[in-house]
Amino acid sequence: MTPFELAEPASLKEAVGLLDAEDPTVRPIAGGTALMLMMKAAVFRPSRLVSLRRIEPRYAEISAGPDGHLRVGAMATLSALERAPAVREKLPIVIHTLRTLSNVRVRNVATVGGNLAHGDPHMDLPPVLIALDARVTIASPTAERVLPVEDLFAGYYETVLARNELIVELRIPAQAKRRAAYVKITTGSADDWPAVGVAVAVEADGPAVRAATVAVGAATEKATRLKGAEAALSGARGDDAALVRIADAAAAEVEILSDLRGSAPYKRELLRVAVKRAVRQALAQDGGVG
């Protein structure tokens, strides 16, 4: 690796001030699980890394609000998210997702904010967070802004973050009686990258769906909300014919990308399978977000 400067600010304000909106070789580093691999492969040669590990501890906290929403500091590790009692109680779908997200060594280091800021379309969490209507708070040197997670991703490994902006918080609203499920299909081991990942959250009266959010990852250039599938789900009861219509709507509305885990036609069929499984699993729950 080429030499670079390492800055270790003690506050968020200082960290943001050390970033450079005009210089792509200045980057923040949190867990560094992806960035260090890029540096070792000489894909990225930084002039300065701004370490976030010493900023205020509150940015690593996970807590539940009085209305039931979850606040997750961007510096919380994926393992901390997996172990948090508030997450276990209110969002077991997140626990289920994390248990096959890479391996425990990575989850012990990787942070929630870094996972999202990396913009990798193969990640498991983004479609789940999109389905749960989660939002991120983003800080710059002059202001903060709040975005739905679905609006954070701009393309293949691209986000809308400016070079001098940082994700500081993830907020997941109270889910009440929404039912949610995530289906991951891999071509390798259970903790491998997904070939397709589909998350579904539904509001339902028994088997009848009133409203739904559906998101896909890994098969597309970015984690994407499937509004055609959502429209097909509205009013559906989860019978076989309805599931076929919903799966077909999902497969028809996005461009599928080929990669090492499968061709586009193969992944389109996997998407149909994953959508049907996720809807079935969500509707089979008695209530709450599973």
What does this structure look like?
The chain folds into three domains: 5-51, Uridine Diphospho-n-acetylenolpyruvylglucosamine Reductase, domain 2, CATH 3.30.43; 58-172, 2-Layer Sandwich (Uridine Diphospho-n-acetylenolpyruvylglucosamine Reductase, domain 3); 179-284, CO dehydrogenase flavoprotein, C-terminal domain (Enolase-like, domain 1, 2-Layer Sandwich). Helix content is 31%, strand content 24%. The protein has helices spanning 12-18, 35-40, 78-83, 85-90, 92-98, 104-107, 112-117, 125-131, 227-233, 240-252, 264-284, and strands at residues 5-7, 26-29, 48-51, 62-64, 70-73, 135-139, 144-148, 153-155, 158-159, 166-172, 179-185, 196-205, 208-217, 224-225. Strand 12 (196-205) and strand 13 (208-217) form a beta hairpin. It is globular and about 60 Å long.
